[in-house]
Every structure is written in structure tokens, then in C-alpha cells.
Amino acid sequence: MSKSNIESYPPMFRPSSADPTRQPDLNDSESSGAGISDLPLIDMMCLDIEKLDKACREWGIFRLENHGVPTVVLSQLQEHAKRIFKLSFEAKQSLVNSNCPIKYFWGTPALTSSGIALPRATNDALNMDWVEGLNVPFSQLKYDHHHHHNLLINDFSNGEQAKGLHEHTDSSILSILSEDQVGGLRFFKDEQWFKVKPNPTTLVVNLGDMMQVISDDEYKSVKHKVELNKEKERVSICYFVFPEENTLIHSSHFKPFTYNDFRAQVQLDLKTHGSKIGLVNFKLQHCQDHFA
Q1: Looking at beta carbons, which pairs linking 36-41 to residues 24 or more positions away fall under 8 Å?
Q2: Range 111-135 average pLDDT
Q3: Model's pTM, two decimal places?
């Protein structure tokens, strides 16, 4: 955490807001000994459909190369994001109640349909997600009546108290991630956590809950989280694709529901249990073994 830029952080993330005697040792975290995994590499210039299908079935996460987005554009996005996050907390917070479609959030990645953060399950800085971000709705892309698109730009604050982003699955169809070189992304496979090597020239794609539903459980919604570097902030830019909110989603393994239904259930989960339960709420009884 940069002391010279302390006013840019949410007040609860500033050193005086947390009890130093309760600072966790990140070196003893549950996944600090996780293995390092090379993700399946998908080349967009010579797409191997069988390899892509296998990555979706067995991993739920893969890396894209030759994706067509110029490296200079990704670098510029990262630099612009860093400049925005250096603004004062008050300047960023003013976006929440403004008419600007871009919304600022912190302490949780769980957002309402308008991009405003849901009430946090805890006010304890040591137990919340140490993340702040901007939600950018791409409303102009709604020419497709089956999907809508959002861009999240995240800044993962560093510090001794940092908890990162707790383990979760994305609610999207898929998520496309551009990250800097700091690293910290972890995913769960074969009953263990793996570290993802940062590579700013490639994009990481992970499948979300809606893809698992659409594919009748053939493809995985991958569990993942972010652990933080004590010395450096991590900036990521993630593009989410969702079903159109009121389109009915059919699956032989799940009850019919709309994305609005799913989001409402997740919000209820967070309020009632403090965490997302997700797809199990919609699973047909004869298919419950998949979640056992």
C-alpha cells in the first residue's frame, strides 16, 4: 500500500482501520503452497476445436494467444486504470450516486443490476474482499438479444491485512481476463489450488455458472480466487458475457430460470448465508450428485 497515495483507498483499507495484531500471515494461507499450472493454451489463429472442448470440460479455464487485441491496447488500458484508481476515494465514490453509467465499488465484487455494490456481509476489513473496481456496462452492444456485456476494472489493494478475492465462481457465461504481471490468480482443479502464471500478452478465459447450465454440466464453472502481493497492487480488466436478463434458460439438469432469477437468488444467498450458493438452488433433484 502506497502511503503517498493513502487517500485513494477506501477508509477501511487504510492502515489505521485495521487492528495490526490481527494481520494474517499471507505466507501461511491455505493456497500459498499451491502448484503452478500452465493453463491449456488456445491459439485463435489456428483454433483446435477438440482442444478447446477438452479445456472447457476438464479445466473450465484456459489461456488465449493470438487473440487479436493489440498488446499496446492492453497496456494502455492498464495505465488508464491505474490513473483512475489513484484518484481520491471521494472522487471515485461520487460515481455511485451520479448519472454516470460507470459505477465504482469496493469491498465486494457482488453488484446489483445497476452496477452498485451489494451490502457487504461484514464490516470487518480483515474478512472482506480487498478489491475496488469500476463496472462499465456496454449497453451499446445490446444488438444481440441473448447476451449483455459488462467490463470490470479491478484494483486489488495490497497490504499486511490483504485478503484478496475469496473463492467463488463467476455468474457469467464466460469471463475474459487481462491481468498485469503481479499475479495472484488461483483456480481449483483435482481437489487442489493452482497458481496461474501472469502473462500480460495473453488473455485468460474462465467459464461461468451460465455456461455450466447451458452445457448441461458438460462444461465447468471454475472455482477461483485472488491472493495478493504484500508489496504490489494488482490491476485486472475483466470482460463478462451474461445471458439477456429476462431470457428463459432451459437445461435438462436445471429448473428453467432467467438470469434475473439467478441474480436475485445470489443476492438472497449473500444476505442470508454471507456467501453465494449459486447453481445448487436451481439443480433438479435427480442431478444433485454433481454437487455432492
Answers
A1: 36/194, 36/195, 36/197, 37/187, 37/189, 37/194, 37/195, 37/196, 38/197, 39/63, 39/196, 39/204, 41/65, 41/202
A2: 70
A3: 0.81
